[in-house]
Amino acid sequence: MEEPRPPTDAQPPAPEADPPASPASIEALVPKRRLWRVFAVIGLAIAAAGLAAFRSLTATDPLAAVWTMPGLMLLSVYRAFLSGGLGVEAGGLIPAAGLRGRASPARRSRWSRALWGLSLALGGAACEDQRVVIGAFVPERPRFTAPEKVAALNDDVARDEDPTLTGDLLEIHFMSERGASQDIWVSRRADLDSPWETPTVELLEKLNSADKEDTPGISNDGLRLWFFRGAEQQTGIWMSERASRGDPWGDPFFVEALNPGHEDGTQAMNAHVDLPELRAVVGLNGPETQGWDLAIASRESPADAWGEFVPIVELNDAGDQLAPFLFDDGRQLFYRSGDDLFWAWRPGPNDAFEAPEPLEELNSPDARENDPYLSPDGSVVFFSSERSGGTDIYEARRIAP
Fold it and tell me: Angle 213-216-221 (CA atoms, 0-180°, nearest 5)?
């Protein structure tokens, strides 16, 4: 007799479920779990080293991310391991079944939140003095102590302004009207804790003339000096060089490249060449400006010619913009607008500047501030101010960031 056939819509029997992981198989995962914990510790160490490196670099330096991000990434990988996201059923480093069997969801969730919190804390510590926007770190405006007059450099009667210093801060040049003439003067000191020597003009015989000399700017090594000369034939930016700090300055010459448009009546003043000597900012006043406007030029190396000057239109307005000081690889700028000093920032050396902010600690409500100079390490600023009734040189210490 033929056996009855099963109905055609009958379901096949369900396969047997995999047996749960045995205690022995779970214990076998312990060395691998410890390995991932080692990865987490290494990630924390790298992140901490990145934090230290970040704090010593400028906010927009890409090396900061290079140092910090790998550590945070390792922490994130370990976080994924805790959540089971790295588990695979066969052939993987961490079998998912064993992981889920070893730690409860609540425990994994606590560890995950703790690691994300640690990552955010490290990132927040690294960015303590920064504003963060998508894709960039935005530095806070530099802040300074209350300015103090540099008594040794100032004359009680004459106007003293336009301070510019060598990178070691041991030599300062500035404009002074003492001696019934507008000339460049110099003072030196033995070290940073020593007082400034009495300023002199005798060492600068070739820099000064019967014309007016003004707004000097010296190179970091002290071997090149750019300044304004009000010569009858060639008014504008001149330059002088010397072989060493102990040698006298050589014969100055008119710098065509730093005087754009001078043939058409445009006057250049307040030239500032940045620390690596790859960018120059000048104030221009001529037929196509709104008054004194800022313009910037760049070059590939100090041996190359200057490129074309481009107006910094986002900072220029109907008033006067002068006394530029560019730093942080062209990303940050001090300058004077009207009677006050301002700070502006941009994400990169070829980007537009963001809205400027006043340097409130340096500005006096009833006086003009002018001619900022920031030390290479950013710790001290020199500038001139009329707050004492005359025009004198002041300094202030940086307190943040």
Answer: 140
Strand locations in 177-248 (E): 183-188, 213-218, 224-230, 235-241
Q: Residue 228 and residue 271: Cα distance in Å, rounded?
A: 8
CB atoms within 10 A of CB 63: 13
Half-sphere exposure in the Cβ direction for 329 (13 Å, CA): 12
Please report, for residues 15, 17, 74, 114, 291, the alpha-carbon distance to residue 96 in angstroms, rounded to integers and kept in the order given.
21, 16, 19, 21, 71
Average pLDDT, stretch 370-387? 97
- Output Rg (C-alpha) for the chain, integer angstroms: 32
**Digit-coded pLDDT (tens) for 28-54:** 545 555 665 666 667 666 656 655 554
Total-model pTM: 0.71
Task: Please name which of 214, 212, 165, 169 lies closest in space to residue 194, comparing C-alpha atoms.
Answer: 169
Pairing of strands 143-144, 392-400: antiparallel
The residue extents of the domains of the chain are 23-130, 143-400
Lowest mean pLDDT among 126-130, 143-147, 355-359: 126-130
- What is the CA angle 279-271-348, rounded to 5? 30
Phi, psi of 352 (to 5 degrees): -75, 150
Tokens of 363: 């500005």
| 3 state SS of 396 | strand
> Before 401, cis peptide (omega within 30)?
yes
The label of the residue with tokens 């425990």 reads 107
Label residue 124 by pLDDT band (50, 70, 90).
low
Degrees, nearest 5: CA angle 41-45-49: 170
The DSSP result for 45-67, as a single string, is: HHHHHHHHHHHHS-TT-HHHHHH
- Residues in contact with 3: Cβ distance below 8 Å, sequence separation at least 6, in sequence order: none
Burial of residue 391 (CB within 10 Å: 0-12, 13-18, 19+) is buried
Core vs surface per residue 133-154: b (16+ CB within 10 A) or e: eeeebebebbbbeebeebeebb
d(CA 144, CA 227): 27
**Separation CA 270–CA 280 (nearest Å):** 10
Q: Compute the half-sphere exposure of residue 106: CA atoms within 13 Å on the CB side of its CA.
A: 0
| Arch. (CATH architecture) of 143-400 | 5 Propeller (2.115)
